[in-house]
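Objective 1b: paired records.
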Amino acid sequence: MATALKKKPAPNRAVATKQTTAVVGKADMPDYLRKSKGRGNEAVGMADVVIPRLEVVQALSPCLKKNDPAFIAGSEVGDLFNSVTRENYGQTVELIPVIFKKQWLVWTDRRKGGGFKGAFDTPTQAAARIKEEPNPADHEAMETAQQLCLIRKEDGATEEIVVSMSRTKLKVSRQWNSLIRLTTGDADRFTGVYSMFSVDDSNANGDEYKNFGVQFVGYPTEDQYKAAAALYEAIESGKRELKADPSQEGIETADTGGEY
């Protein structure tokens, strides 16, 4: 099998030095704790667990505000980060795409209290959910491309991540899907590795913000391919659910007009 290619920077962009918020995992756990059997987690099912989202730091992101609970030390505009662990990946990550799914996410206007009201497979289902609200006009069903991926870490390890792409990010999702077809053809979706990075963009009002950019960089190792295949099978069999972190972080950016 072809070996993975070295990471290539996108044209005309600087790759930031990786700055990471420390996340202690089982690999760092002392031996006397590693042998424990998971007591206390008996009632936690997959429906109670979300998959982290990959987000990009915007000029008004909470992670830049020192007094905000979402603050990430060392973060800069354009950095990519994990919405759950708060790990800062720098301005580029390598992703192995696993599954693509279109959903309609219902949000309450942040100025009206904000909040996530659910993810639906059709706009009709989302519209029906909005009608249940006392003030339907304060809600929107946002068409969202959910790209479930594995992040390929610098040490070769992988971790699950969802790239949720709505509004102007939908065009990036379509470009990525086209790129996958061009680079891997009829092979599994997870036979390619893609670099994702932040790029400058602007909305119809001329407001500037950071969007995603993507390019093909190579192929996964055999172990990484097997990990992606296992995740695919778990989702397709119903053992796992594609349930992304529902926080509104990343929604209130310049491309949305600051409304959600």
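Objective 1b, second protein:
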Amino acid sequence: MEEVFNKIRKYNGWDGQFPETGFERSFYLNKISGFIGNRLVKVLTGQRRTGKSYLMRQIMQSLTGKIGVNPQNIFYLNKEFSASVDIKTSDDLENLFLYYKEKLNVSGKIYLFLDEIQNIDNWEGFVNSYSQDFTQDYELFITGSNSNLLSGEFASFLSGRYVEFEIFPFSFFEYAALKKIEISRDVFLDYLRFGGLPELFHLDMEEVQRYYVESLKNTIVLRDIVGRHNIKDLTLLEDTFNFLMTNTGNLSSVSSIVSWFKNRNKKTNYETLSSYIGYLKDTFVVHQVERYNLRGKQVLGGEFKYYLNDLAFKNFLFGFFPEDIGHHLENYIYIQLRRMGFKVRVGLINNMEVDFVAEVPGRKLYVQVCYMLNSQKVFDREFGNLLQIKDNHEKVVVSLDEMKFSDYEGIKHLRPWELV
């Protein structure tokens, strides 16, 4: 274990110097800080390359800087780094951790940060053991890029003893802060085109940016999906992703997508396509949103809407066009609501659609989204759908109009950046 220990040393702050921590994501740091200091396992999930590793290092730096934790009491392992290639099983991890404790003669509480832990076989047993070990004080932080991280055996082991934080790409506010520019309509349109993948901000040429997004897509498809599942038709998997990317916000069913492929002489079936969509959802790259009957208060099966975790995939791989703006705005509002912690569904009332029904304990919000309220017909449609809902919960219409309109019968008009 000495060789592995020496390799990972540079990624730890045992000498008091932490690796680069990047742009501070105070929104997540503030949320997570409220849960530090107990035995709950802190689980950071989300799509690849959304900044989970940087956020981990920011938490580590905060522990030493604000709380005064000895840097040697923080153990960090990133399974994506070549330095940890020999850590393949929970036994390997156990041996490395024990070597670390002995080598540094660590005493007192230890904070364990385990990055992309799903790449270690039987990791669940290690996390469960140390999070529940009452002979010594441990606090664990783990990350993963697959939604199945919190399913199965681990969820059974730690039922009620972990807290999850889904990490999204940079928000519009983070985008503006990073670029040090004032929030405006034009800046927001730039954000819709560019997206919020953190690494893109370090790449200047559009060709290089496009190459990065393509490479990330290939990593998600080839490594995270093909590497874990018995994929018989890689082309179909990529075509499925492409279909969902170019049909964001449109109602679709698995059956209708199967028919769409068959009309283009691409053979598939319901079971295969349903599995492929599920694999894409597991990587967080797309989100499936169910419909909800507001009168009957029941979920409507069959048809769903799909939204991208980041618009960079569509814009850099398929282009950004004026007719995309309305769909992209809707995609942004969905992700923003999720970032705010809401459970989000598509509403249906009296055969009229409500774009989003968003709920958290103690709050419900109905949202209509449109590019511009540029005619009486559009105004009547967007506000009229919300007027069908006869309750006192918040109702808003979000658009990109330059002018801010007055409230109408209790319904607020917001620009996208005002939804916080």
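Residues 50 and 198 are 6 Å apart (CA to CA). The chain has a mean pLDDT of 95.
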